[in-house]
Design goal:
Layout lengths: L3 E4 L6 E8 L8 E6 L5 E6 L4 E8 L2 E9 L8 E6 L5 E6 L4 E8 L2 E2 L5 E4 L9 E6 L5 E6 L8 E8 L3 E8 L2 H4 L3 E6 L5 E6 L4 E6 L8 E3 L5 E6 L5 E6 L4 E6 L5 E6 L4 E6 L5 E6 L3 E3 L5 E4 L6 E7 L1
Antiparallel strand pairs: 1-23, 2-28, 3-4, 4-5, 5-6, 7-8, 8-9, 9-10, 9-11, 12-13, 13-14, 14-15, 16-17, 17-18, 18-19, 20-21, 21-22, 22-23, 24-25, 25-28, 26-27
Amino acid sequence: MVFHFFLLAQALSFTLLDVVFNDHEEPSLINSVDFDPTSEVFAATFTHNQEVRIYRILEGKIALQQVIQNPKGELKYPQHALISKDGKWLIVANWEGQTLNGYSKKGSQFSSTPSFSTSFGFKTKRLRPHGMAFSPDGKRLALAFGASTMDAKGIGFYTFEEKKGFKPDYYLKRPELKEGIPKGVTFSPDGKSLLVTIADTHCLVVYDLNNLNEPKKVLQGLSRPEDVRFSADGTYFAVTNSGNNTVSFYNWETFDLKHVIDNLKIPHGLGFSPDGQSLVISQFGNVAFSKNGYIESWDEKREEGLILYKIQ
């Protein structure tokens, strides 16, 4: 596998360190990657394998640390997995069942069974989860919803109550969200804005959390954007583009394009390590989708996996 890098003004620099492919006999989409904000540990969802895997970056390599799986895990096609701001909880959004599972940390590992499982809680059409993110203070959760025309499209906001689960606070419905499928969400470093990628309209929308009546800014020209995450220092953010197999990086103040990584295989999830030295991207590999977004087939050379870069 060969990766190319385009360097622009005030460019970032990335060095490829490791690639880990799915070793399951059965293929799976790897939908999300998210770091523990307190360590070099990250979680990745292997949706069709019904697993959440916990990895650690060790001497420039991706090392498997733990696997949460059924039947104990009570996973139902896990879509996104987050680790709480204090590192004590693993939160998983399930595609089927419409639930948020919470796994408490015991020593160096998370419990194999959920301490709580709460429903998405909003009275609307069927809710299919995509990306989610904690606010900088760790008290709120934003979760993107949307799939087919049969499903609701919007953003759910929750209050996190440790050991109890999530209390639904507000469901954001906006015309621009309904025009496409909201995929990735993340809070700005100061907690005042929410960034949302919308796949079908190829854009990223920025909302002022004190005024959700209309977008504060819309970034156009993306290519079926999936997830969005901020760098550890909060000066730039990155977007995975599954439409053209790239990850694009933007200055947070100016929205100028800083860098592009290309030649990926349907990139989806991404996460920055808290020390600012590592970036991990998940890719779907050689999978064919229908016009409606359903999986049609996997190539024999699947190549779904996790890619580790050193940030310089």
